Fold this sequence. Notes:
Elements (H helix, E strand, L loop, with lengths): L1 H8 L7 H14 L5 H11 L5 H13 L4 H44 L3 H25 L10 H17 L4 H30 L1
Helix pairs in contact: 2-5, 4-5, 7-8
Amino acid sequence: MAESTEAQNDPKRPQSKTELFLTFATIALQGFGGVLTIIQREMVEKRQWLTPKEFTEDWAVSQILPGGNVVNLCIILGNRYFGWRGALAALAGILLPPLFIVLLLATAYNQYVHLPEVAGAVRGMGAAAAGLIGAVSLKMIPGLKKNAMGAGISAALIAITFIAVGLLRWPLVYVVLGLGIPAFAYAVWIIRQQAQREGSAA
């Protein structure tokens, strides 16, 4: 109840579970090839429900959890605003509209998959989706300036991850465990050191 009251008093938070559902449904209907670019623009730039730093942190958590990244992010945000009911509303919004569209498109695709024009269109959409993901990644970089580990170490981790996954083709689970756990431990240590210094100064 307190979460709902807080949301209603803050114009930069969803005012109801219905708004949450409709927002994510609209995002889902725009997200051909992936909704990451759309959700970043809607949450951070347009609706300002999240700061760039908050979006970067929530997205990082969403990536290491099982399941789809965007689905995880929707559940996190819905739960933050309205508890488990908000999580269900956000989840329904992001999944239900595309489900019906995908069923229709899958039926049509099976009928015309043999046409070279269709194959070319699919390859083109794949390239566009990759470009959209790259654009969002660039937009998220400024949020790393406020990261506890600092921009330099964050950039180094990004570069190492790209080399390991993109060039060396290492399995993602090994990269997450090999880089993610030490980075997490280091970030926790940095945050504790900062808290101790602030406590001493107070």
